[in-house]
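hey
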């Protein structure tokens, strides 16, 4: 692959996604390890499920989650037309993943059925940069996401500016999800064309 200004637009996009993946992974790991010591090992010692809601057109979170939780089954729900397919996610990840994706409204109970028709129960729900301020069914999404977490499961939400932080906190309070204090990303200035993580909101069930 070429460097810097010599990159084609699609190489630049891949570059940005990879940078986002590294950022996600580093931040996720250090925050979870400091807030919930031992939790990652516990999840890795059992059959676990991880759900990403609103994975969109970059699906940044799947490869880092697969690397951190190699035995987990990954699920993704996104309502949008631009949400990637499993094949596209695997091309970006350069790897086959144990993943099941569906295009559905995550604010609705019936969207949480897995590939065998069973309800999804997750140990971790990731909602990366939902951009709540731009609309969507997010109040119901938060409620449903919480309802589909296993006991001691973690809801991990990232937001990329102060306005989004305020909206997301209000919305979580509305659905009575008690969050930890928002944690600022140690590297908030590293912006890309995609969605940088400036604040992380975490709640454990
Ligand atoms: C700003 S994008 C974030 C994409 C991705 N998580 C990332 O970090 O690059 C927000 C995504 O949320 C999805 N979304 C919005 N409302 C939703 C809903 N009710 N259920 C599922 N996905 C939803 C949109 O389709 C969009 O792909």
């Amino acid at each position: 692959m070429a460097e810097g200004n010599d990159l084609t637009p699609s190489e630049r996009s891949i570059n940005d996604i990879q940078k986002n993946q590294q950022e996600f992974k580093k931040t996720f790991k250090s925050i979870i390890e400091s807030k919930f010591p031992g939790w990652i090992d516990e999840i890795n010692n059992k059959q676990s499920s991880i759900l990403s809601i609103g994975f969109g057109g970059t699906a940044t979170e799947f490869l880092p989650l697969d690397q951190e939780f190699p035995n987990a089954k990954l699920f993704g729900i996104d309502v949008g037309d631009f949400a990637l397919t499993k094949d596209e996610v695997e091309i970006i990840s350069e790897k086959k993943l144990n993943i099941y994706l569906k295009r559905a409204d995550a604010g609705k109970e019936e969207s949480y059925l897995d590939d065998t028709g069973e309800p999804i129960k997750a140990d971790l729900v990731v909602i990366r940069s939902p951009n709540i301020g731009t609309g969507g069914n997010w109040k119901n999404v938060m409620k449903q996401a919480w309802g589909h977490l296993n006991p001691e499961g973690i809801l991990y939400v990232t937001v990329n500016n102060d306005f989004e932080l305020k909206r997301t906190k209000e919305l979580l309070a509305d659905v009575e999800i008690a969050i930890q204090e928002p944690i600022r990303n140690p590297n908030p200035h590293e912006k890309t064309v995609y969605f940088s993580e400036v604040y992380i909101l975490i709640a454990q069930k």
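The chain has a mean pLDDT of 90. Residues 8-204 form a domain with the Rossmann fold fold (CATH 3.40.50.150).
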